[in-house]
Amino acid sequence: MAMRSTRRAALALAGFAGMTAAMAGRKAGADQPGVHRVAIQVSSNDPALMNMALNNVKNIIEYYKNIGETVEVELVTFGPGLHMLRADRSPVKDRLASLKGSLPTLTYSACENTRNGMIRVEQGEVPMVPEAKLVPSGVVRLMQLQEEGWSYIRP
């Protein structure tokens, strides 16, 4: 009986130690007061949804700026949502450039898996807007950000 209690205590301690180590590995600043991070998913080729996501971006950044706090926003596109960041087809291309120019804490991430699929289907280049950065997988990027403590929004 004492052996089982000792084992349980050891397992609980190991679990606590693992949780503590995982939290220590979070992105620096994730727990600092006045610093906020949010990931916004766009996975639809609907211009209204794209504009809603950009409205969210602008409103979030302006809110925290007005109260003197910092916010990082990463808009992650994949699947049909990648059209948002296409240089040749984005219905919101001008707005992307304007927002990025005025909001330095904003990042646009484009799923490379989706882009490669589009290249195969279209048998040609799929250009991204210059403000976009390619990430290997949009879904995995969202997972990584959430694991680092980022908030998550899907408009």
Quickly list its features.
alpha/beta, globular, 5 helices, 5 strands, 2 domains, Hypothetical Protein Ychn, Chain: A, 155 residues, five-stranded parallel sheet
Overview of the molecule:
With 155 residues, this protein is of the alpha/beta class. It has helices at residues 2-24, 47-66, 93-102, 112-122, 138-147; strands at 35-42, 70-77, 106-111, 132-135, 151-153. Strand 3 (106-111), helix 4 and strand 4 form a beta-alpha-beta unit. The longest helix is centred in the first third of the chain and has 23 residues, at 2-24. InterPro entries: DsrEFH-like, TAT_signal. Keywords: Plasmid, Signal. It comes from Azospirillum baldaniorum.
Summarize the entry for a quick read:
The protein is α/β, with parallel strands linked by helices and 155 residues long. It is 48% helix and 19% strand. The protein is globular, with a radius of gyration of 20 Å.
Helix content: 40-55%
Number of strands: 5
Structural class by secondary-structure content = alpha/beta
CATH hierarchy class name of the largest domain: Alpha Beta
Integer tally of domains: 2
**Helix-strand string:** HEHEHEHEHE
- Low-pLDDT ranges: 5-30
Instruction: Figure out the total of helices.
Output: 5
N-to-C span: 53 Å
CATH topology type of the largest domain:
Hypothetical Protein Ychn, Chain: A
Described by the principal axes of the CA atoms, the overall outline is globular
Strand order, sheet with most strands: 4-3-2-1-5
Major sheet characteristics: 5 strands, parallel
Protein name: DsrE/DsrF-like family protein
InterPro entries: DsrEFH-like, TAT_signal
Keywords: Plasmid, Signal
